[in-house]
Amino acid sequence: MTNHAVLDPQVHRALRIDARKSVIGLGRNTMLSMVVPSEFPVLASDYPLLFQRSPSSGRLQAVAVFGFEAQENLYLTEEGWDAPVLPLAIAVEPFLIAAPAPGQHSGRVALDLDDPRVLSPEDAGHGEALFGADGTPSPFLRQQIDRLTQLDRGHHQARSFYEALEDYELIEPLTVSSTFEDGLSRDLVGFHTIAEEAVERIDQTTRDWLEERGYWRAITAAAASLSTFPALAARRNARLTHA
């Protein structure tokens, strides 16, 4: 059970965060992570970016793919996260956005106190301070707040992006079949990707509309990200070789 607490300098001033590269993504033994369209262009060269539908609402949600089966993260190594760019949902950990205070509209910064990267004064090792002596956020915390803000803003902006994909029929189902050096095959099913033929048929007026909103860049980045699947398969084969 998680132990989330809204950050309070009076209560949490002495806490530190272990932000070493070797603990990035700690416990993230999962094949997927939620991503937002605004980060597609910076992620597309390192991760396959696909779409899933919510089982309950049917709404689209973008994800970065880390592996070929449940609980497989091929980017997580003994040395830490093996990619030059982190999805925001990974980069913000162990912080998260809590519900607004009563009468307020903006979410609050919270911390998972049970995360092993959260260090108390009694814990050994170096950690990044959360607050200065005067109770103001440290440079590290300000950076994390900025990332949380980007993620929250991107999540809200994504709704209209997904609606545009649906309205212009720019997505299609995708199955990715891969065979690895141990002879086993894996099929990624239940995902969607950009329908490139539909994109090619878009008229100039529609394209201009998509470009004005930044959607065109996200669309082309998501489509291009499929080219990273061979590298992802190579990561799995490398692990099989050294197993």
Q: What's the structural blueprint in terms of helices and strands?
A:
Blueprint (H helix, E strand, L loop, with lengths): L3 E3 L2 H4 L3 E2 L14 E3 L5 H4 L5 E5 L6 E6 L10 E2 L2 E2 L6 H4 L3 E4 L9 E5 L5 E2 L8 E2 L9 H29 L3 E9 L5 E10 L1 H5 L3 H9 L2 H10 L4 H14 L1
Antiparallel strand pairs: 1-9, 2-10, 2-11, 3-5, 4-5, 6-7, 8-9, 12-13
Largest sheet features: 3 strands, antiparallel
Gyration radius, rounded: 20 Å
Low-confidence stretches: none
**Domains, number:** 1
Number of helices: 8
How are strands sequenced across the largest beta sheet? 1-9-8
Measured as a percent range, the helix fraction is: 25-40%
Q: Compute the separation of the termini in Å.
A: 33 Å
Overall morphology:
globular
Strand proportion, as a percent range, falls in: 15-25%
What structural class do helix, strand and pairing data support?
Answer: alpha+beta
Mean pLDDT: 93
Q: Name the helix and strand elements from N-terminus to C-terminus, one letter apiece.
A: EHEEHEEEEHEEEEHEEHHHH
Give a count of the beta strands, DSSP E runs of length 2 or more: 13
